[in-house]
Amino acid sequence: MSGDALEVRGLSVSYDATPALVDVDLAVAPGEMLALLGPSGSGKSTILHTVAGFIAPTAGEVWLGGERVATPGAGTPPEDRGIAMVFQNYALWPHLSALDTVAYPARRRGLRRALAREEAMVILERLHVSHLADRRPAELSGGEQQRVGLGRALARDAALYLFDEPTAHLDMHVRAVFVEELLTRLRDTGAAAMYATHDAEEALGVADRVVLLADGRVVQVGTPEEVYHRPVDLWAARLTGPASVVAGPNGPLLVRPGWARLEGRRTGRVVDVRFRGPHSDYLLQTDDGRLLVREPGTPRHARGEQVGWTLTDSWPLGGPAEATQASSSNVAGPE
Amino acid sequence: MGSSATGPPRLREPSLPAALLVGLTAVLVVLLPLAKMVRTAYTEGSGGFGAVLTRPGLGEAVGNSLLLSLAVTALAVPIGAALALTLRRPDLPGRTLLRVGVLLPVVVPDFVLAYSWLRAYGRAGFTDDLFGVGWEGISGPVGVTAVVAVNAVPVAYIVAAVGLAARAEPALERAARAAGAGALTVVRTVTLPLMRPALATAAMLVFVLTLGTFAIPLVLGSPAGFATVTTRIYANLARSSDPAAFVEAILLALLLVVVAVAVVAPADLLLGSRLRVTRTSTTDPGPTRSGSNRSGWWVTAAVTGYLLMAVVVPLVALMTTALTTAVGLPPVPENWTLRHFDAVLTVRNSEALSRSLMLAVAAASLLLLLGGCVAALERSRFGRATGTLVTLTFVLPGSTLAVGLLLTYGQWLGDTLLIILLAYLAKLWAFAHRPVSGALDRLPPDEFAAARVSGASVLDAIRTVVLRPLAPALLAAWLVCFLTALHEVTMSSLLYGPGNETLAVVVLNSAELGQVGQTAALSVLLTLMLLVPAGLCWWGIRRLEVRRTSGSSFEVIDVR
Questions:
Q1: What ipTM did this prediction achieve?
Q2: Among the four given CATH numbers 1.10.246.130, 2.40.50.140, 3.30.1330.10, 3.30.43.10, the one describing domain A243-316
């Protein structure tokens, strides 16, 4: 417990009368990457900004590296919490060059300008953007701006990194490259991190563990495999990826697109076919409900065709087995 | 530049009627009078410039004006910036009230403010009566500087606050805190640098406005022999029949323009493009809410103290002066009377009042039309410069415009209200143009395009999706013009003919005649007349405001 890089206990935050977070418990182990996954308005950013010290909790506590930094009455100022943050809108200062932006944290540590710039240059080189050192934010593309934002966070040399939807405003192709860079650099530092996103693929891909959030409450915590394979309910299943629900003998079953094959005794009609590149998606109308099946290669069946299918895997939804397997961590799920 | 290139909506090609209206007005009320002044100065002065320039007190007045402008800028801009920085804290106790209080001097006419300071802190004034503390220096350069500065603080505050809101997003400051900077370091390394263009603009504006300020030096400076360029122009035109005085007035008026343009031109060149930088991000979580709020109370106390000293006590003193039987009696209920109000409620004054209202309504309505035309024109291919030109009329000192108009139209319109109306149109054009243009800038261009592709013609689109979101800005522009016209004296006092005074001129004349109680009563009435429509319009503007959903979603943090 005390060894955690971050621990959040019973955290609630309200804006005036509107609750934004309700009794949230979280922990991030040293070196661990925890993803916060939820739709907009679910409280991801509120958690990050409370941990960073920009929002005071209405109830609960925030502990960083075994030290209590926030209670409803008092809080350590953000600059003394030893955290680093990457912002959704980059939050680059329009009056500073990329180099001075990355040198900023070192300057605040008291380093002389020349030394801070040297240090910043090394970071920019590591991020492959040293040629942009003299540019202002207005002269940088979105991907370049966010690299500078990442550089500024890395310059903090923090024990905990907070990522507030860092890829939300990036183009699809820039996004993957940026996330790759981020993970590599973060691994170099060995620091813990919390990564807010509304993109399920991103959350599952980057994190050691994923927290599912809805309306300011924790719905489920688990490894990416757990939340994908054993979601606590249909809402959690839909949040973490494509999901079909078919009637099973003991109640509704969750079926992920890869959990069924297009051969077998049971039959269905192809309602829709989509070619997705590496694979094709077939939407079947069966007696048990609509089923999405994903198979490699180009489409083999046309719309309207009758095909056979078999389930290779499934997960009972709403059954009695669900509650006990919901959460594998020490964090309590909702009732 | 890598920033997005979506500009304000381009409404249409320049329409001929709008272009004609704008062009004609510009020529008639600004360009022709200026040209006429230059010509007259040249022909009249060719023989005896030497005699004019050596007139006693001329150099001193010029020096006084420049020093006053410098001193007021040095005072008002830091105060305005500090207020803008402190009043944006969402957790500040009583923030809404303080914000309104800071803007209060905008509604109070400057001569009323000057007079109320005199009544509050001067000899035989409020503090003198109550505590025996009278400030001799209130009449004189120091008093003039203090009151002009108080009067200019709202301008500096507004410009600084707008600059803050536009450029210093909370995320930028949070990023600095997360990077290890303390609260004060953030202000030094991030917030103030981001405010720099706004502060430069504020300094420029305050300097130019102070250069043209007239009523405060007249009320507080003239009795002590402190003359500025503007009061000297007034003295030359209103009190002297010497031809040399007339030429001198023209030269001084031209000098004011030259200095004003010299101050503004480089600033506009330097800042024009930088101020227009638009930020890409759409939403933000609002400034930091810290846990404890002890410092908040100190800030509130400090701002309240300033407002009490600068505005509230003077206005209370004004009120008690209006109510107290005679000067020298303590302002206690036993000595209260409505005598002064009775004395000022004359037929002449009510005529002056109706003239003022008529002028203000006419000016505000015409100005809204003119301002709208310019805002539309500057968005077309050929009209871009019109916006800049109209903004420049704002820095033309009122005294200059009045002298020019008098020179050009005096022989035909000298005794009518029309010449005053022309002066208001020239002086307040920018007031009407800026809010409308600014609102158009903030109008997402896609909304207009969406209306067009939904089948609306240009006019239909303007009527259905542009005008409605613009309504608060239009009303605000009208209100600003109306209020400013109602308490304008710099030009009115030079232009009014016999039996044609506006109420503001009546107050000023009464102050000059030394009718203490009656001046106070008139000032109270005039201020109330400004407060009531201002309050009503304010309420209307709030009602009309359209809430926009923002482009990107930023969680619940922006739910307040």
A1: 0.76
A2: 2.40.50.140
